TrEMBL record:
Pfam families: Glyco_hydro_18, SLH
Coiled coil: none
Keywords: Hydrolase, Signal
Secretion signal, residue range per the UniProt entry: 1-25
Organism: Paenibacillus planticolens
Name the UniProt record assigns to this protein: Glycoside hydrolase
InterPro entries membership: Chitinase_II/V-like_cat, GH, Glyco_hydro18_cat, SLH_dom
Domain SLH: from-to ranges: 29-92, 93-157, 170-232
GH18 domain residues: 231-537
GO MF entries: hydrolase activity
Length: 537
């Protein structure tokens, strides 16, 4: 297909955005910092932490990377990154004597105080002096304490008795004499784990910590924990996915997009597998056999996105007929499906929510031995998904955190801050052990000529070719964490945002940070060799 595949119809949510007068109608920052550039070594760290809400900027869209950090400010960063900030004052066990309950930092300081991570900072009167600039040695020590807390008693003992001394000798910082032996067992653990480092002139233990250093330290801390967290991978084998058939061994589950709801008249409906792009293809046997050989679970995906979906959810006879039709295909032994994925899209009205839940309950009752996955759209404008009830009913909830695309403002499909916000909103209702982050491999292309812009969805192959061609400026667009490609030709000025391997990696990082069940890949045929190499790690 041509690279110039025009987007004729946008999701209904985008109309709401347009009527609001701005695409940035979200409570997240979607603008870059004016003082963090592509040339800054800390750019990735700052924007990653900003996207997940751990760090903030100042008015005027500045980050002020060279400003120093106070003790209480760093403690807040640490506790937030560790998911260990307390949620209410009544649950807290106390705090240093100069941090009262009315202070903004109280929940974070109290949580750290309860874990005895900051006791070394207190003076003889039990005061923290929270507004003091925190030093690099204090940072290393509190981080080291937090890290050691997660180790076994045996491992901690080995380190505190001998390990830290060996680390000190190995590092041989020029200014090691200025470091406290009392804190050495903690500070050198942060060094040992790669969270902090020195330079050719030493560790600089008494130097105040800057905001750019804080971002790097907190990011490394998160990254260390993220690396140890495994997640499941669900691949959607739908729409020209045959080239990716050999990738099935990299997955935990394949969802075959081979069916859709057929509902054209009241009182009757069925599972359609013969028409439109959601159909059982010729040669389906090879795909099923490959999945079996890879020993991955096989879901049948059922799609529907027509406007009369809300009518279907009130049509009990049609639902009964559809469920029986679906059950017949799902249980057909020649396919060997092991579960079902329901992808009913476009439920914007809240009054559809109870109807959808009743339908899902009826479906689950009809196929009690088959795990059920339910795909949902972000709840900003799609109010027809009762996330709490769906989270209780479904074995897996797939969050389609994409298609934020907006024509006028050129907001792309899946900016990382919006994906993060959608995940957080969903986690308020769905257990993380059930939640899967949906990633859509796509590109958005705006072509502007004579003051008018049109939006297209180019094919991935065409985008990859453009990346290799001369005459295009490209780079990672912040804070979106999407590849941006800009070029000019006889059609006009082209601006593209692309979900490339680097941006996919950041979304995997996000899913791991929240401890989600997994990620899903829409759709397998769009993913490149580079993407699969990432996913094989």
């Amino acid at each position: 297909m041509s690279i110039f595949k025009k987007v004729a119809v946008q999701a209904a949510a985008l109309c709401v955005l347009a009527s609001a007068g701005t695409a940035y109608a979200y409570d997240v920052s979607l603008k870059p910092f004016t003082d963090v550039t592509d040339q800054d070594w800390f750019q990735n760290e700052v924007y990653s932490l900003s996207a997940i809400g751990i760090i903030d900027g100042y008015s005027g869209l500045t980050y002020k990377p060279d400003n120093t950090l106070t003790r209480e400010a760093f403690i807040k960063l640490l506790m937030t990154a560790k998911h260990q900030e307390a949620t209410s004052a009544s649950a807290l066990a106390g705090a240093p004597s100069d941090v009262n309950q009315g202070r903004w930092s109280y929940p974070f300081v109290s949580a750290a105080y309860e874990r005895k991570w900051i006791d070394f900072m207190l003076d003889s009167q039990g005061m923290l002096h929270p507004e003091n600039a925190i030093t690099r040695e204090e940072v290393a020590s509190v981080v080291g304490k937090a890290l050691l807390d997660s180790q076994t008693a045996e491992a901690r003992n080995r380190w505190t008795v001998q390990g830290w001394k060996e680390e000190k000798e190995k590092r041989n910082f020029a200014d090691s004499g200025a470091m406290s032996d009392k804190l050495g067992q903690y500070a050198y653990y942060a060094v040992n784990q790669g969270i902090m480092e020195g330079d050719q002139t030493g560790f600089h233990p008494q130097q105040s910590l800057t905001r750019k250093e804080a971002a790097a330290i907190i990011y490394r801390l998160i990254d260390t924990e993220v690396a140890a967290h495994g997640i499941e991978k669900i691949g959607f084998y739908a729409i020209r996915s045959y080239p990716a058939i050999k990738r099935m061994p990299l997955l935990n589950q394949v969802a075959f997009g081979w069916s859709h709801l057929a509902y054209t008249a009241a009182g009757t409906a069925k599972l359609e597998t013969d028409t439109t792009e959601y159909r059982i293809p010729s040669g389906w046997e090879e795909a099923v056999q490959t999945a079996d050989a890879a020993k991955v679970d096989k879901d049948l995906m059922v799609y529907y996105g027509e406007k009369n979906l809300k009518d279907f959810l009130k049509d009990e006879p049609a639902q009964k007929a559809f469920i029986q039709s679906l059950k017949a295909v799902l249980t057909d032994s020649k396919y060997g499906f092991t579960g079902v994925t329901m992808d009913f899209e476009g439920l914007m009205e809240a009054d559809s929510a109870p109807d959808y839940i009743q339908f899902l309950k009826a479906l689950k009752a009809a196929i009690p031995t088959y795990p059920m996955s339910v795909a949902v759209q972000p709840d900003y404008y799609y109010k027809g998904y009762d996330l709490k009830e769906i989270g209780a009913l479904a074995d897996t909830v797939i969050l389609m955190a994409y298609d934020f695309t907006h024509l006028d403002s050129k907001l792309p499909s899946a900016p990382l801050p919006l994906v993060n916000d959608a995940v957080k909103r969903t986690l308020a209702y769905v257990p993380k052990e059930k939640l899967v982050l949906g990633i859509s491999k796509q590109a958005n292309q705006w072509i502007t000529a004579n003051g008018q812009s049109e939006l297209f969805n180019p094919d991935i192959e065409a985008v990859e070719n453009r990346l290799k061609a001369p005459g295009a400026n490209q780079g990672l667009s912040m804070p979106f964490f999407l590849r941006e490609i800009v070029f000019q030709d006889d059609r006009g000025r082209h601006e593209m945002y692309y979900e490339d391997t680097t941006s996919i990696e950041k979304k995997v990082w996000l899913a791991k940070y929240y401890g989600l069940k997994g990620i899903s890949l829409w759709y397998m045929g769009n993913y490149t060799d580079s993407d699969w190499a990432l996913l094989s790690k």
